[in-house]
Design brief:
single chain, binds iron/sulfur cluster, TIM Barrel, alpha/beta, eight-stranded mixed sheet
Length: 289
């Protein structure tokens, strides 16, 4: 099996078998994102995907515990094909405990509740949704192509249909001027979705991304570690999402947090305060991915 182009996966899928069911991202316009800019989006054919699954099941069928469907928004794949792939995984990877994928809110909203429930029953356990922000001005500015109401609706729909969600936010997207609003509206988004998992990743840009060019032109300001910590503290103080597992464990983050909302919020706030007071941040050279 040969992967097409660069491959991306969430940190928690480090030990998963990754199967590309799509190439690239169907949207591919977010101004901070460099992941799939070199790829022309397409849904791979049934034959291509099954060939990869067949090869992997022959070689590693007994060892695979987790399967991750890539690339950027694999949930866009038509439901009948996804159901066939999930059935293949169930039959040929007997020890696979879960299948997960990336998805956009629009992918979720385009599927009916019956389709999503069928996917859940077939083994799709979780979808990673990149929300980025709960602030509609920021979402428009980064060309996310979705509103906070749509992202919330997608998260609530997945929950109703028995599919877990892992929601990602990006700190720093509002610069220092809109930091507070970004934090508060992002907390509101998480409160409304009450996902199983939520994560914040500190903004990190490739020099050729449209947002990096905006910064070079002086149209936007990249905030530093102290402000990122401040933003995360505003977010945590506004959170009410019982049971959500919260992490900032991405390599781009200045401070790594892990806890369960709401009970671990005081401890995580203390950790952030301590990191800020002692300037104990992950150095920039280590944040390069
Ligand atoms: S939807 Fe996700 S993968 Fe696609 S361009 Fe935006 S951030 Fe990148």
């Amino acid at each position: 099996m040969v992967y097409e182009g660069d491959l991306y996966r969430p940190p928690s899928e480090a030990h998963s078998l990754i199967i590309q069911v799509t190439i690239g991202c169907s949207h591919n316009k977010c101004t901070f994102c460099h992941m799939y800019t070199k790829k022309k989006f397409r849904i791979r054919t049934r034959e291509e995907i099954l060939r990869d699954l067949e090869e992997c099941s022959r070689l590693y069928g007994q060892y695979v515990r987790r399967v991750f469907f890539a690339d950027g928004d694999a949930l866009i794949v038509p439901t009948p094909l996804l159901l066939e792939l999930l059935a293949y995984v169930k039959e040929h990877f007997p020890y696979a405990e879960r299948v997960t994928s990336y998805g956009r809110a629009s992918n979720v909203l385009h599927k009916s509740e019956e389709e999503l429930k069928a996917l859940a029953a077939a083994g799709l356990q979780m979808v990673y949704l990149g929300a980025e922000s709960g602030d509609d001005d920021i979402l428009a500015h980064i060309q996310k192509g979705e509103t906070s109401a749509e992202i919330i609706a997608a998260g609530q729909k997945l929950k109703r249909c028995g599919i877990k969600t892992s929601v990602t936010l990006i700190s720093g997207l509002g610069g220092s001027q809109n930091m507070k609003r970004h934090a508060l509206l992002s907390a509101r988004l998480i409160n409304a979705m009450n996902p199983e998992y939520a994560a914040i990743i500190a903004l990190h840009l490739r020099p050729d991304s449209p947002m990096a060019q905006e910064i070079r032109r002086g149209e936007m300001e990249l905030i530093g570690a102290d402000e990122i910590v401040e933003e995360t503290m505003i977010f945590l103080r506004a959170i009410d999402s019982p049971g959500t597992v919260f992490r900032t464990n991405h390599a781009a983050n200045y401070v790594a947090l892990a806890g369960v909302l709401n009970e671990d919020i005081p401890r995580m706030l203390r950790q952030l305060e301590e990191a800020r007071d002692r300037q104990r941040y992950r150095p920039d050279w280590m944040r390069l991915l």
